[in-house]
Amino acid sequence: MTRKKIEIKKIDNISSRQVTFSKRRKGLFKKAQELNTLCDAEIALIVFSTTSKLFQYATSSMQQLIERRNQHSPIQKSDPPSAVLQVESGAASNYDMLRKKEEQKARELRQLNGEDLQGLTLNELNKLEEQLIKGLSNASKVKDELFTQEIYTLKRKGAVLTEENHKLKQISSSFANEQRSSFKSIVCNSSYLPEEDHGRDTNLKLGLP
Fold it and tell me: Domain K-box: where (predicted)?
């Protein structure tokens, strides 16, 4: 049975897209690592997610591999050297810009965790404080919603248990009433049984007919 071919197209669902990106990225890096191990190849991979998050893999120094690539980049005769150099310079510039952007995001994350606060101005500290207050407010709101939902769920479970307990009590009471009725019936029936006369003597007469 042939395996159905999956159509390669953009995934519309954001959650599915993120899951697929994570799996495919890990698979790509694993293949690159295997190629390096099997063939002793120097490999550099740069991947950016839709949220501009940088992922990279290099068998050695990423910067050294980029410089090595620039040194060994073939210049075609049909292309002016200045144009090729301009493209390579633009690629290096974009990489540096994205690397700085990643460093900036990482620094902001550390600052939100209360780290690396030295050198911030009063205005920057005020903005950071506002972000933290807003974040705490949102977290508290979500926590309250989850807490309310949990209480509601527990109340529903309690109501179900109460109803089941009430039904069990009714069944137990009905069973007890049936037992009492059966016992009374047995007692009433036994009261009508004839009593044996143990005091009556039996006289035997012996003689000739």
Answer: 88-181
Cβ contacts of 29 within 8 Å, gap of 6 or more: 45, 55, 57
Rounded to whole angstroms, what are the CA distances from 132 to 112, 121, 122, 141, 142? 7, 16, 15, 14, 15
Lowest mean pLDDT of 60-64, 86-90, 100-104, 114-118, name the range: 86-90
Q: Is 73 within the bounds of a domain?
A: no
CA distance 191 to 16: 81
The mean pLDDT of 114-133, rounded to a whole number, is 81
What is the total count of domains within the chain? 3
| Domain shared by 127 and 181, yes or no | yes
**Residue of 206 and 156 predicted with greater confidence:** 156
Alpha-carbon span 149 to 162, nearest angstrom: 20
Cα–Cα distance for residue pair 92/66, rounded to 1 Å: 8
Chain centre distance of CA 94? 35
pLDDT score of 76? 47
Rounded Cα distance between 196 and 203, Å, is 18
Query: Could you give the maximum distance between any two Cα atoms of the chain, in Å?
Result: 161
Residue pLDDT, tens place only, 132-144: 888 888 888 888 8
Q: Is the residue at 5 inside a domain? A: no
Domain of residue 47, CATH code: 3.40.1810.10
- First-to-last CA distance in the chain? 111
